[in-house]
């Protein structure tokens, strides 16, 4: 079995050692080397090209953003940015996504046994997603080691039926992961000011989601914000689930709102798309539209099927326009998607479906 070779670039010896230990704990990943700055990394890449680079942003001699731009212009390699919680670091890491980084993730937290295990799961999964984010690496997907994972049952129970008062309001629930930051930008920028209320789960670390939402708010006609517990789902507004929190759709009378809560990893994620989709099936039923976008794994596939079974209309992004055709592929295999279209057509499909309600 071919292992995914990772080059770790970070100026902290403590972080390099910690990441080496985490990546080496996965039988599908091999640390081919470490570097304390981009100049050393460049020399190592000349000798051996890694499958994935884990990259810090704030480093001496050359910052990670400059190094990333050089890599993408000269010899593109999947890059995962591993950043700190600083506000400046958060903004720069989000800019790294625009320059071609596959994912961003927080530096490992070692406050408790649970945080250690969750850091291992997230880091290793993201490295694996990065490794197959280009066509020539898709063959690796069958070689990945899969850890046990919880379903949406861990956060919200599935009920056979739920009595709801009549309403004409439409809710759009969206799930995305690897490649989703760019996909969501394309999707939301095309939304008119009177777009239906939208709730989004994008797999992204805490604190990054607020900066991401603020950036989209500056670009879009509609209002985009990080979801807070109790926020109403309204026309012309998109709510993005905060990192490290599950976000569920709820309803009080004819009013839709979101519940933001703690809980275990579901499908190895928090927030989980399945959790959002199940709650949408229960509380919006046939008044909803579900959209599943690019991402590795199967989070959201079963939830999209539950939405469809509850009467919702469902859309999946097609393979050609996905960075990683994992989540949409699994949903399509389950028969959960009514419509399969390229990314650029998803907004129009949503708006056309809304007119038919």
Structure in words:
- With 357 residues, the protein is an alpha/beta fold.
- The chain has two domains: 4-143, 3-Layer(aba) Sandwich (Rossmann fold); 152-355, 3-Layer(aba) Sandwich (Rossmann fold), CATH 3.40.50.
- The chain has helices spanning 13-24, 38-47, 64-74, 87-98, 113-131, 180-189, 208-219, 273-283, 301-309, 327-333, 343-355, and strands at residues 4-9, 29-35, 52-55, 79-83, 103-106, 171-176, 197-202, 223-226, 237-240, 246-252, 255-261, 288-292, 313-317, 339-341.
- It has a seven-stranded parallel beta sheet with strand order 8-9-7-6-12-13-14, with helices on both faces.
- Strand 4, helix 4 and strand 5 form a beta-alpha-beta unit.
- The model is unreliable at 135-147 (pLDDT under 50).
Question: Descriptors for this entry?
Answer:
single chain; 357 residues; Rossmann fold; globular; 20% strand; alpha/beta
Question: CATH superfamily membership of the largest domain, which one?
Answer: Methylesterase CheB, C-terminal domain
CATH architecture of the largest domain: 3-Layer(aba) Sandwich
Overall SS class: alpha/beta
- Estimate the helix proportion, in percent: 25-40%
CATH level-1 class of the largest domain: Alpha Beta
Please give the radius of gyration in angstroms.
Answer: 20 Å
**N-to-C SSE series?**
EHEHEHEHEHEHEHEEEEHEHEHEH
Instruction: List how many beta strands DSSP finds.
Output: 14
CATH fold annotation of the largest domain: Rossmann fold
Mean pLDDT across all amino acids: 88
- Beta strand %: 15-25%
Number of separate structural domains: 2
Poorly predicted segments: 135-147
